[in-house]
Amino acid sequence: MTKKIAIYPGSFDPITNGHIDLIKRASRLFDEVIIGITQNSKKTAFMSIDERISLSSEILKEIDNVKVLSFGTLLVDFAQAQNAQVILRGLRAVSDFEYEFQLSGMNKHLNANIETLFMTPAEQYANISSSLVREILSLGGDVSHFVPKAVETLLKTRL
Ligand code: ADP
């Protein structure tokens, strides 16, 4: 039987408890979940790609069927190269919808064989975003409820 593989792409700058909640849920639905960290994000990267990979790998190492890779190609090409059938994206609020709808439409146009699936996090994670975590930290706020300890520690050394 074909392995069911999902790609969860994003900047993960940094990985948050919201991302992790989604990854844990997805790991129970798919044979393999590949975290695809984008190399060429429009956003200005806070952490280097290597830092994001090693931090995410360390945090997710206990989940056997999850692996972390980075990619600099079209997402659908990366998904195809990894034999993934599904692109996974998170929806936190209605405000995420418009962009995500557009993105999934473009990806379907580029490769109709790959489906985009949306998942929502547990309620307590719905307001977490990487950009807010960076902002709160830079202003000296407490982010311990939003990110794992390892992320908080590394980010603090960066400020
Ligand atoms: P991108 O730069 O591609 O938006 P992110 O790392 O910010 O990358 O997010 C990757 C994916 O995870 C996106 O689909 C985003 O909507 C989703 N996501 C981000 N934060 C959360 C959260 N707290 N709960 C659920 N999904 C989330």
Automatic annotation (TrEMBL):
It catalyses: (R)-4'-phosphopantetheine + ATP + H(+) = 3'-dephospho-CoA + diphosphate. Substrate binds at residues 11, 43, 75, 89. It comes from the Bacteria. One of its GO terms (biological process) is coenzyme A biosynthetic process. The keyword Ligase does not apply. CDD domains: PPAT. Its EC number is 2.7.7.3. It is an enzyme of class 2 (transferase). It holds the Pfam family CTP_transf_like. SUPFAM superfamilies: Nucleotidylyl transferase. Pathway: Cofactor biosynthesis; coenzyme A biosynthesis; CoA from (R)-pantothenate: step 4/5. The record marks 19 as: Transition state stabilizer. One of its GO terms (molecular function) is ATP binding. Residues 7-135 form the Cytidyltransferase-like domain. Keywords: ATP-binding, Coenzyme A biosynthesis, Cytoplasm, Magnesium, Nucleotide-binding, Nucleotidyltransferase, Transferase. Its cofactor is Mg(2+). GO terms for cellular component: cytoplasm. Its main location: cytoplasm. It is found in: Cytoplasm. Homohexamer. Belongs to the bacterial CoaD family. Reversibly transfers an adenylyl group from ATP to 4'-phosphopantetheine, yielding dephospho-CoA (dPCoA) and pyrophosphate. This is Phosphopantetheine adenylyltransferase. The gene is coaD.
